[in-house]
Specification:
Keywords: Cell inner membrane, Cell membrane, Membrane, Transmembrane, Transmembrane helix
Largest sheet: 3 strands, antiparallel
Structural class: mainly alpha
Family: Belongs to the GSP F family.
Distance between the termini: 94 Å
Order of helices and strands: HHEEHEHHHHHHHHHHHHHH
Low-confidence stretches: 1-19
Protein name: Type II secretion system F family protein
Membrane topology: Multi-pass membrane protein
Number of helices: 17
Mean pLDDT: 81
Number of strands: 3
Strand order of the largest sheet: 2-1-3
Shape: flat
Subcellular location: Cell inner membrane
Strand content: 5-15%
Helix content: over 70%
């Protein structure tokens, strides 16, 4: 890898790696008179025209590519984008394509301007003599500590393409697991939100119409109906206050969750104790811990350093602190399985399989098996949760909406009984 970088450094002019290239769109005709058009970066229009003529194309239009009015910066780079980038890099490098050429091909194929700019910047840095690790370290938001450590280990061992392939598989598995959990939680949350919105519409717009009708009866309303009417009056009079409180509470929750480690730890601890959902989160954290540790250890990252990267990948601050404790215990000579046992978080099976892996010198293999088992457990639990939640949601909707409708018709039933 170092030989490739040095060769590139000699053949590529220095100004190419430091100058800012501008995207141009061009139109022209080839030697047969066939019209052609395309897009190509260059330092200026004259250089691009000269390059096109060298390729046998007579340029008729060369102008800078206009920037779009909306979305000029492009979409946010997601973990799925990084996983796909890793897979592409691994495939091309295994096919013998040099790293700089691989990055150029991948960059040209990107539709997201942010992703394209980042890939091109990485290519430029490597052309200038940086290693892959040094180039991606300039983008810590997109390439987390785990990714960077794995790339550094892969470069050091001369197996970068294998490590990138492993990273791609790892990220795909993790994102699939996260997507499964989000999908399970999204449905009930959205259904309950819709039920609350429908109830609010009934309270603000429908119940007042019934109230006007009830006043003509000249009789006392049933207690349940009176509660709904009072709630409607409050909602009509103070809807703006309710909206401010709800929106304020929503933003305050996420603000403190992002900014306050204590609040985040408290909430993660509470989530782990919720029936069914807590079990899913436990199994998910164990699966991510096992797979991440196995991937980093297999890539040749020292165990203590690997655990440092693993902590933030568990997805739960309770497990994150536990992994840091495991790291500290391993650093002073404790076996991994004993350090895991002291946290009182990992099931007996996980600890025993880790102990067997350590004794047999196949820790990564055993942890991969643990990850596969718990990922399957999460999948099964999520499917079971979906079937369990559906009737519960129906009950909630029935209580909120159905109860309100019944409350509105109680006076009518009472009046019909007296007639």
């Amino acid at each position: 890898m170092s030989a490739t970088r040095s060769a590139v450094k000699k053949t590529v002019p220095v100004e190419r790696s430091t100058s800012q290239l501008v995207p141009f769109i061009w139109e022209g005709t080839d030697k047969r008179g066939v019209k052609m058009k395309g897009e190509q970066p260059s330092k200026n229009a004259n250089l691009l025209k000269a390059e096109l003529r060298r390729q046998g194309i007579t340029p008729t239009v060369v102008k800078p590519k206009p920037k779009p009015l909306f979305g000029a910066a492009g979409k946010v780079i997601t973990p799925k984008d990084i996983a796909f980038f890793s897979r592409q890099m691994a495939t091309m490098m295994k096919s013998g394509v040099p790293i700089v050429s691989s990055l150029e091909i991948i960059g040209d194929g990107q539709k997201n301007p942010r992703m394209k700019a980042m890939v091109n910047q990485i290519r430029t840095d490597i052309e200038g003599g940086s290693s892959m690790y040094e180039a991606i370290s300039k983008h810590p938001v997109q390439f987390d500590e785990l990714f960077r450590n794995l790339v550094r280990a892969g470069e050091g061992a001369g197996v970068l393409e294998t490590v990138l392939d492993t990273i791609a598989s790892y990220k795909e598995n993790v994102e699939a697991l996260k997507g499964k959990i989000k999908k399970a939680l999204f449905y009930p949350i959205m259904t309950i939100a819709v039920a609350i919105i429908v109830s609010a519409i009934l309270l603000i717009f429908v119940v007042p119409q019934f109230e006007a009708t009830f006043q003509n009866f000249g009789a006392d309303l049933p207690a349940f109906t009176q509660i709904i009417v009072n709630a409607s009056r409050f909602a009509v009079a103070y809807w703006w206050m309710i909206l401010i409180v709800v929106v304020g509470a929503f933003f305050a929750f996420f603000f403190f969750y992002k900014r306050s480690p204590g609040f985040q730890h408290f909430l993660d601890k509470v989530i782990l104790k919720i029936p069914v959902i807590g079990e899913i989160m436990h199994n998910s954290a164990i699966a991510r811990f096992s797979r991440t540790t196995a991937v980093t250890f297999k890539a040749g990252v020292p165990l203590v350093e690997a655990l440092e990267s693993v902590a933030g990948a568990t997805g739960n601050t309770v497990y994150e602190k536990a992994v840091y404790r495991i790291r500290d215990d391993v650093a002073v000579g404790y076996p991994v399985n004993l350090a895991m046992k002291q946290t009182h978080l990992f099931p007996h099976m996980v600890i025993q399989m880790t102990a067997i892996g350590e004794e047999a010198g196949a820790l990564d293999t055993m942890l991969f098996k643990v990850a596969e088992y718990y990922e399957q457990e999460v999948n099964n639990a999520v499917d079971a949760l979906a079937s369990l939640i559906e009737p519960m949601i129906m009950v909630v909707i029935g209580i909120l909406v159905g109860g309100m409708v019944i409350g509105m018709y109680l006076p009518i039933f009472k009046l019909a009984a007296t007639v």
